[in-house]
Amino acid sequence: MTRPPLLLLHGALGAADQLQPLAELLAPDFDVRVLEFPGHGRTAAPAGSFSMEGFQDAIADRIRRDGLAPARVFGYSMGGFAACRLALEAPDLFAGLATLGTLFRWDSVVAARESALLDVATIQQKVPRFAARLAERHSALGWETLITRTRELLGRLGQDGGIEPDAIARLPMPLRILVGDRDESVDLLHSRLLALAAPRGALEVIPRAGHPLERVPLGHLARSLRDCFGAASER
Q1: Left (φ > 0), alpha (ψ -120 to 50) or beta: where does 77 sit?
Q2: In sequence order, which residues have a C-beta less than 8 Å from that of residue 71 and are 6 or more positions away?
Q3: Which domains, from first to last, does the chain contain?
Q4: Which of 37, 65, 107, 229 has the fewest CB atoms within 10 Å, counting from its CB?
Q5: What is the strand order of the sheet 175-180 is part of?
Q6: Cβ contact 101:179 at 8 Å
Q7: Is residue 76 classed as helix, strand or coil in its secondary structure?
Q8: Where are the beta strands (DSSP E) in 123-186?
Q9: Cα separation, 58 vs 210, whole angstroms
Q10: In angstroms, rounded to a whole number, what is the distance separating the alpha carbons of residues 232 and 172?
Q11: Residue 195 clears pLDDT 80, i.e. is over it
């Protein structure tokens, strides 16, 4: 039986290779595709593409180019936010949507808090191993430029605002919002309100999971995604 396609999206400062372990777990059930956002990893960033709008365009282009519509999409952190914004604008592209560790509520205070974590000098001095991993992973822009442009992107999100329940109420496709029980970066109450507002929404709290993808039990995540997208699949 043909495996239904599933598109995976990484988070801020991430790259396609971080999703490969999850892709391998899901491969028996889905035709897994992984998208790398402009400016991340080894993917170039043409003018205007390193923005939330540019990331949304990248998702839409991949769905259309690969003939995935309506698509099953999983987005981690920033990838989930970009996918949700696109789903609100072009719901016909989606058969189902799941997010993990996504911060949906943005304002100037949240943007300032998140941006404070992205300081090149501090990362170099306090977490040099992390800096080395970023340098190895991100050859398109270089990790220092990636950090700077991500800070700018977060500042724009703080001005634009996030995604509120009244917007999510317009989504017709299944939506599963996953949050780690040890993820201190996500607004759990707001996530719950979004799940309640979505006509086909659900909230799942993953035990013993933090925000970094490396601190999420991938077996649990894979089972949840199979369940989330099973009703829409042809299995």
Answers
A1: left
A2: 5, 6, 7, 63, 93, 94, 95
A3: 5-105+162-230 (3.40.50.1820)
A4: 65
A5: 31-35, 5-9, 71-76, 94-100, 175-180, 201-206
A6: yes
A7: strand
A8: 175-180
A9: 27
A10: 13
A11: yes
